[in-house]
Each structure stands twice: as C-alpha cells, then as structure tokens.
Amino acid sequence: MFISALGGSAALSAASVIRANPPAAANYDPKVGPAAQLAVGYHFNDWISAQTGYSWNRNLLTIRQLTGTAFSQSEAVRVEHAVALEAMLYFRPRASRLRPYLSAGPAVVSLLNQRTAGLRVAVGIDISLRGGWGVRYNFSEMASANPFAQALSPPSGGKLMNFQNLFGVVKRF
Question: Which terminus, N or C, of the chain has the lesser number of Cβ atoms within 10 Å?
C-alpha cells in the first residue's frame, strides 16, 4: 500500500471558433495555474499497482467573443476537480531506487457544475528514500468533455485537455 501527495502546475487546452454567416468568433485562453493530487494505492506485485486519486487545479481563463460588431472580453477563474481510478505499470521491481511507471484509467471530472467522464494517462517516476518514504514526479494528461468551449457564443467543439506537472512525496507501507 502507498499514499502520495503532489503539487505543481496545470495547463488547459484552448478553443476557438469562427463563423462567417452571421459573422461571429469566440475563444478562451487559459493560463497555467496551481494543481494538487492526493492518491492511495496498492501494489499487487513488483510490476502492477492500482491507485485512486483526487486531483484539483485552478486556472484563469480570458474569454473573448465577437458577434457582428459587438465585442466582449472577460476573465474567470475556473476550478476543476477529478477522481480517477488508475492501473499502474512499473518498469522496475519495488526494491529499485528508481521506479518509472505508466498509469491510465477512467475519471469523473467536475467542472462548471457539470460532471463528465474523463480518461487520465500519466507517466512518472518514484525515487525511494529511507523508511518507506520517497519522492514522486508525475506528468499527466486528462481528456474530458469541454464545458468552456460549449459555453462560448458561438459554441466550439473538442475535448478539454488538462496537463498536470506534479512533484511530491510518496509513502510505502
């Protein structure tokens, strides 16, 4: 069994749309913001583990919309919450000091008062220290429905991609 607590940054994908008739355009431009993740996992053997985790990030979005000759621009802070269940594949045995891994699994994403399904995929490395403690680096990508793009006028399509770059501690029991 293990637990981890990570912090870092999150970047979201942007979206834009242009329509010719009637003339209209809209986009949102997200800024990099803070992110955190807490996870609990279980090692089935040296190579396969599973973890469930909660992740959070906060991003500032600049929203621009043009309809005919009317232009508007606003800024909004948006917070995303997600809970994921991931299968983890380690590439070195548990006794190794350096243990790179790949993980993937489904997630429930909460954003703009909507809950949608997502897919989280991550690569990372655990570096063992003493007493069951270690440090973990994790880079993840989560794809889900995009309520930001649908809220634009005119609406845009595509998935929302959330990229998290996290670093923190892991404790093995």
Answer: C
